[in-house]
Design goal:
alpha/beta, 10 helices
């Protein structure tokens, strides 16, 4: 392994000029030296450009602004696979930020110490701006185990379905080699992480490294139709199930239980979503 591999920190943005400065400063504060910070703005109409340009004198910053809004997923793929050059990659939502300056150096240490690690997860917290409260993530004890086989984490996912990109580092070289682009589905981060677990192992950092800021306008909260949920979440479970069937290390009975548990969690959570939103039409469709 390269002694100090390059790590790309990706920040994609659209009209988050009032938040993005915190994301950038938290990336620059990382104590790991060999980083590049990729900022890909999706043609924002607010003051994002002005805020971002304040940091462009720093050689670690690589800033790109799209001429038009190319969509969130296309912007992700551009930032991950065209602009970034790192051996490993991590994403900061432009309204979130790192809360541990040692996150990347700790993650690289885990990767060096263990075999075939494609993913490293640190714990995250959630900041609810309306109530000004910070909440710890569930499954705290899960992080006390430093290293696990990816297949085991995959099969356990229904027990701890919280492994997204908040506080996550991925092996970008593996993504590029296997042409694993970011799919246009809800929670594409979870899909990609689960797919990586089928090919390699997972390490964990038992400390809070990332803050998710909930402010009412988060991108993942914008999907509201039953068909969008069905075509994205429920179909992606079936897709991953088919891919997992090709892995001879996975017991088929365990995989059937995984699929059932995943569908059960998603169907229940989406029904509750539609009930709480008062959207009877979409509830009936779902």
């Amino acid at each position: 392994m390269i002694p100090n591999p390059l790590v790309s920190i990706v920040i994609t943005s659209y009209n988050t000029g009032h938040f993005i400065e915190k994301a950038i400063t938290s990336a620059l504060a990382q104590d790991y030296e060999n980083i590049e910070i990729i900022i890909s703005d999706n043609n924002s109409s607010d003051n994002s450009d002005e805020v971002i340009k304040k940091f462009c004198s720093n050689s670690k910053i690589k800033y790109s602004k799209n001429d038009t809004n190319i969509g969130m997923i296309a912007n992700f793929n551009k930032a991950f696979f065209e602009l970034s050059k790192g051996d490993f990659i991590t994403n900061i939502s432009s309204d979130d930020y790192f809360i541990d300056e040692t996150f990347i150096s700790s993650a690289i240490k885990k990767i060096k110490e263990n075999d075939n690690v494609l993913l490293v997860f640190g714990k995250y917290q959630s900041f609810f701006t309306k109530s000004d409260t910070i909440v710890d993530m569930p499954c705290q004890c899960y992080y006390q185990t430093s290293f696990r086989k990816g297949i085991d984490v995959f099969l356990d996912f229904a027990e701890c379905p919280y492994f997204g990109w908040g506080g996550c580092i991925m092996n970008r070289n593996f993504l590029v080699k296997n042409k694993m682009l970011i799919p246009d589905i809800i929670t594409n981060d979870i899909y990609m992480n689960l797919e990586l677990m089928l090919h390699g192992n997972v390490a964990f950092i038992d400390s809070n490294v990332y803050m998710i800021r909930y402010h009412g306008n988060n991108a993942t909260g914008s999907v509201r139709t039953a068909n969008q949920y069905i075509s994205s979440r429920l179909n992606y479970i079936n897709d991953l199930y088919k891919k997992a069937l090709q892995n001879n290390e996975i017991d088929k009975n365990c995989l059937e239980k995984w699929k059932y548990s995943m569908l059960k969690i998603d169907i229940k959570s989406f029904l509750i979503t539609f009930i709480l939103s008062g959207n009877q039409k979409e509830y009936d469709i779902f």
